[in-house]
Amino acid sequence: MNGRRFVSQPVLALLIAAAVLSCATPVVQPTLMLEQHSLRIPLTLEADGTVLLAERPPLIGRLDLSPILRAEGVNPGVPPDGKVQLMMHYGRLYVVGDSFHALWEITPQPGSTTASFRPIPVVRESGPGAMKDVRLSRYGSSQASCLRLDWTGGKPVFITPRGEIRDDCP
Amino acid sequence: MTARRAAVFLIAAALHVPLVIGAPKVEADPHELYDRAREFLADGELRAAATSLSRLKTLIADRPDWDPEGVFAKELLPPLSDRLARLQGAARRLDEFTVRSLEDLQPPDIKKDISTVRDYTEWATSVIERLRGERQQIIVSSLSNPEEQAFLTHTESYVRTERLLEIEVLKKMADTAGDDILGLLGGDPELESVLVRFRQLKRELMKNVADRDQLESDVKASRAQGDAVLRVLAAVVTDDAPLEAGPGGRKSATVAALFPRFLDGKLTEVRARTSLTPAELEALRADLERYARYNRVLKEAGVGPDQGPRIEALAKAVNDLPVEAGVLHTFAAGGPACLLLIVALTLATGITTWLAIARGRRLASLHHSAPGRVPRIAAEVHGTDADRRAV
What we know:
Largest sheet of chain A: 5 strands, antiparallel
Helix content of chain A: 10-25%
Order of helices and strands of chain B: HHHHHHHHHHHHHHH
Number of domains of chain B: 3
Mean pLDDT of chain B: 76
Helix content of chain B: over 70%
Radius of gyration of chain B: 50 Å
Number of helices of chain A: 2
Strand content of chain B: under 5%
Number of helices of chain B: 15
Structural class of chain B: mainly alpha
Oligomer: heterodimer
Low-confidence stretches of chain A: none
Low-confidence stretches of chain B: 1-24, 370-391
Shape of chain A: elongated
Number of strands of chain B: 0
Structural class of chain A: alpha+beta
Number of domains of chain A: 1
């Protein structure tokens, strides 16, 4: 008797769960095609380390790069040449500048004025090993194009749509 | 500045080398070429813009990876190419307008009637206004976009039309009216700018004329100096000999003409001879060496053609002439003994002559003196020396 009651309890729970699921309306998120890229956007660094996107219409807004400048060892008040390059690639922003050691990926957080960011190390050495005459481009096939980073004296590197760094664009 | 930049770009593009000034030291990507083409267009550098666009097309055609979704090929390049084509077409029409306007400019003749001065100034003003209107019409009909109209004003073609309106029309009027118009236009405030431009043109023309006169004067002086040098040279190489006139009866003063004529004269002179004395032969040979030297110098200096054949003919004529055998030459050929004999005979002849002269003088003095005053002497005649004592 006790054993029969022990077995029936899980079965009952399953039946209840199945009944609940069968009554719930399935939620299907609709999608549409969106290719979100930009051409290379040269921007001027302000003294406080921010750049004004309105410098290159039609983008408007403001981007505070001071955490990135600090990480690169660049004094926000004294930018290397006062310029950085920004490019939008598959919904993310990528930023680089002369004397940087990394390409910085900025992922917007929709519905807010904040974004997460991370470095993609390109040059490991510090000091003279920093990049010079940097240039961001788009490269690759139409199915999966890459962000291409060129600089004087170095081999180009490619950032895949997933944000991985590679020596070539797959 | 933009022109120099464009020139640098064109040269670099022609040489297929990467630009160093103001550009990254990596291979140009489509975006760079696109930006350059836009900048060149905005600066009115249509040729440089066309070159940049051409490079962009080639790059994305040869290496499609540089244009993954065809953004440049399909979206960005066509409108820029269209804009370039419109600007090129407008520039071409402006060039045609400039040429046609210059050909059609026919100012009235101000010198015929002084009352036409006002017509004349009205003509200049109306022509400039009309041409400005025509130019504006060309621009508006060719380019509807005000931005492109602004770009066109930076092109060489537009600058040429500006020159047409600001300078060429007035210059044409100045060419027709001369300086008289300056005095006639003075005092009219409406035409003050015209007058200022006229004066500027006049100054430029006067300076050009002065420069030209100075150059002509320098050329004349230089030519006179050169002629004098050539005359001296001609006198030297021809031994200052009076020469007959050249073909056509015109006397030529050039060394190139005188020297061969002089050699021909010498040749004729030598061929007329039947023989030469050794002294003449020696002098002629010295002359031949001198002529050869002259010929070499003249030839190296590029003054006249080579006269070597003439000199060789003269040398042959000299060498072909027989040389006369002189007395001394004959005796010299006989050897030292013959010379001694000549000397002895000469001395004997001299002594005999002297004795005969002395005896003649003595006899003459005996005939002229009186008999009393003649001193007597004892005379004894002997057989063997009767003649000597009888003296």
